[in-house]
Design a protein that fits this description.
- Pfam families: MshEN, T2SSE.
- By secondary structure, this protein is α/β, with parallel strands linked by helices.
- The chain folds into six domains: 72 residues; 127 residues, Rossmann fold; 56 residues; 88 residues, GMP Synthetase, Chain A, domain 3, CATH 3.30.300.160; 91 residues, Beta-Lactamase (2-Layer Sandwich); 154 residues, Rossmann fold (3-Layer(aba) Sandwich), CATH 3.40.50.
- The protein is built from 28 helices and 21 strands.
- The radius of gyration is 32 Å and the shape is globular.
């Protein structure tokens, strides 16, 4: 007899009778179906999945009374299957359950389907555990964690560990090493296989090895991973996450004796000098002019070996000497974007203010005629000024724009890297026209000035799309407007640029490349949790995997990722979206935030059923994240089985490399950080 949910295959054998029952159609639950099956005196009982304590207890009793019980569980190994059954029961019953398992359990097969090397379907890698006396004793004595050791040393009894199954499939060319890589538990076995799988060639990159940042095996992997002969070793190491851009810059600086230009130095470049190099050439060569003195031009480049561009600069600027500093290519690109945008903005601001009618007028809001206001809102100078404000905010990577009316002036401030900066002071008599123009764009009522309003608008740029949430608030001197910006441009940030130094980066990368489990990022609002998740998705996305997200709101678009907007107003909650996502055959699921018990329960169970789940939780530290899940009602044993990594983070402002000075810390700081900090 079978109890299934749903019945996936119908059996009609000629030499046997199989009675198949479906949960929801023939019986209300697995437990009820099992009880009914036992009354039919079956020889064999197949349970589609043991999901709860009741069905587990009935299955154990059935096995004790002479029935052969076959079932499935959403676990990742044989040992974990045994642990899950035991941990599902209350503490006072676990001793009895261990005894029942030691007597009745005959075998556990843990398997995973992997894509074949020839791209013709998938092949199963199986861990096989047959319960012998040694394993029976371990179960009875509560030493289940030692089961993998017994499996690994019991080959004569036809047992096989998952690592050995993977090795066999790779050696037989059934799967590739890259496919097997994330499933290994024994890192030593994985390394030995890697050395056999990749040919060890002479390594000419002594400088990389001498730095101690990359091992010989890692270097060899990088050399063999290059499919484009034009790709340099440094680029390959950065692509694989073995080195950061900063590491490569330091190695090149050491090799050629060049100074390093940090991002802080690039930000201090003279705008007048920057203009000496046309924007198209600066972008093409990846070069930024920093300073000019005594006929010598100082530039920062990501590629100091580009002698053609250096000669071109010499001829273009008339400078006989080009002093080259090496910088991270990403820093150079960002600086080019910033400076040349400032140059264009400065030109536009001058044009706009020349055309503005600055006739003094009343500052009181109630004195303005609505018809006059509507006309001002559509005036070209006001339209251009608001457009410029938004364009500047987007280009400066501002998270918020504040339009603040004060007693005698109007101030526009941008929040950049968590700090508000004053960027513009439009004339006070344009206050209502500017605020009303923003309200028109956000589809708000310009006649309503004494009540708060909320709206939104989308800015479409040639290669970018920015979603803006608008909030107005009446104050003593007029309406204050705050606009929150969400850049919906395709996300391109990599995990290697998140600032995970030392051992953190390889640990995080290993976790996100696992095929299953739950990864949680915690921290307060504005601590970069979502950015970290997006970077992880950006790294692991592939045409061979189905990635889905549920978010509120969708902050960035990622090519190749199916993103769902959770909207409680229309009934699309996180939990409801998650349930639907599970029916979409996902490999990776990203949940914007785990807010409630139902979402937490579904997310944890998704991680336990072979999916990789990434999410955020509002907690102050990593241990508090686990406690938060437990407080939401997730059983501790499920949290322990599902969660593979918890990372708590904060965003802090960096010290300027150029102008920093040594200081004597306050005694309170020493007490908190320690004398070695």
């Amino acid at each position: 007899m079978t109890v299934e949910d749903p019945i996936e295959f119908v059996f009609e054998p000629k030499n046997a009778v199989i009675d198949q029952r479906e949960v929801g159609t023939d019986t209300k639950s697995y437990a009820r179906g099992l009880k009914g099956a036992l009354r039919q005196l079956p020889h064999i009982i197949f349970v589609g999945e043991m999901r709860d304590i009741t069905s587990m207890a009935i299955a154990l009793t059935a096995a004790e009374t002479g029935n052969l019980v076959i079932s499935t569980m959403a676990t990742q190994s044989a040992a974990q299957t045994v642990m899950r059954i035991i941990d599902s029961f209350p503490q006072h019953q676990q001793s009895q359950v261990r005894s029942q398992l030691a007597l009745t359990l005959r075998a556990v097969v843990s398997q995973v389907l992997l894509p074949r090397a020839d791209d013709h379907g998938r092949v199963a890698a199986r861990e096989m555990m047959f319960v012998n006396q040694a394993i029976s004793n371990l179960i009875r004595e509560d030493k289940v964690h030692q089961i993998p050791n017994v499996i690994a040393t019991s080959l004569r009894e036809d047992m096989i560990a998952m690592d050995d199954a993977l090795i066999e499939l790779v050696e037989r060319a059934r799967i590739t090493f890259d496919v097997a890589y994330p499933y290994f538990e024994d890192l030593e076995k994985r390394t030995l296989l890697q050395k056999r799988h990749y040919r060890i060639a002479p390594i000419p990159e002594e400088l990389v090895l001498e730095s101690g940042r990359v091992s010989a095996d890692q270097l060899d992997t990088a050399l063999h991973s290059k499919t484009d002969p034009r790709e340099r070793l440094g680029q390959a190491l950065v692509r694989l996450g073995m080195l950061g851009e900063g590491d490569v810059v330091e190695l090149l600086a050491k090799q050629f004796g060049l100074p390093i230009a940090e991002a802080s130095r690039l930000s201090l470049a003279d705008p007048e000098v920057v203009q000496l190099i046309p924007e198209h050439l600066a972008r093409q060569a990846g070069v930024l002019a920093l300073a000019k003195r005594d006929g010598q031009l100082e530039v920062a480049m990501g590629d100091p070996l580009d002698v053609v561009s250096i000669d071109h600069l010499r001829a273009l600027t008339g400078c006989g000497t080009i002093k080259v500093s090496i910088a991270r290519p990403s820093d150079v690109r960002e600086a080019i974007d910033e400076f040349y945008q400032q140059i264009r903005t400065r030109e536009r601001v001058g044009e706009i203010f020349e055309k503005l009618d600055l006739t003094p007028g009343s500052e009181g809001e109630d004195d303005v005629d609505l018809a006059t206001l509507r006309q001002q809102v559509e005036d070209a100078p006001v339209v251009r000024l608001v457009n410029l404000m938004l364009a500047e905010a987007i280009d400066d990577r501002a998270s918020d724009v504040h339009v603040e009316p004060l007693r005698d002036r109007l101030v526009v401030r941008f929040r950049i890297d968590g700090i508000l900066h004053e960027v513009m002071k439009p004339p006070k008599n344009l206050q209502m026209a500017i605020v009303s123009r923003i309200k028109v764009l956000a589809d708000l009522d310009i006649a309503t000035r004494l009540l708060p309003q909320d709206g939104r608008l989308t800015v479409h740029l040639p290669e970018r799309e920015v979603d803006i949430r608008v909030s107005t608030l009446p104050t003593a001197y007029g309406e204050k407007v705050v606009m929150r910006l969400f850049d919906k441009t395709s996300f391109s940030r990599q995990v290697s640029t998140l600032g995970l130094d030392g051992t953190l980066l390889p640990l995080f990368q290993r976790a996100i490349h696992q095929p299953y489990g739950m990864i949680l990022i915690s921290g307060p609002t504005g601590s970069g949790k979502t950015t970290t998740l997006y970077a992880a998705l950006n790294e692991i996305r592939s045409v061979h995997r189905n990635l889905l997200t549920v978010e509120d709101p969708i902050e960035y678009h990622i090519d190749g990722v199916n993103q769902v907007h959770a909207n409680a107003k229309v009934g699309m909650s996180f939990a409801r979206a998650l349930r639907s996502i599970l029916r979409q055959d996902p490999d990776v699921i990203m949940v914007g935030e785990i807010r409630d018990a139902e979402t937490a329960d579904i997310a944890v169970k998704s991680a336990l059923t072979g999916h990789l789940v990434l999410s955020t939780v509002h907690a102050n530290d990593a241990p508090g994240t686990v406690t938060r899940l437990v407080d939401m009602g997730v059983p501790r044993y499920l949290v322990g089985s599902a969660v593979t990594l918890v990372m708590a983070q904060r965003l802090v402002r960096r010290v300027c490399e150029r102008c920093r000075e040594p200081v004597i810390p306050e005694p309170e700081s020493v007490a908190v950080l320690g004398e070695d900090a």
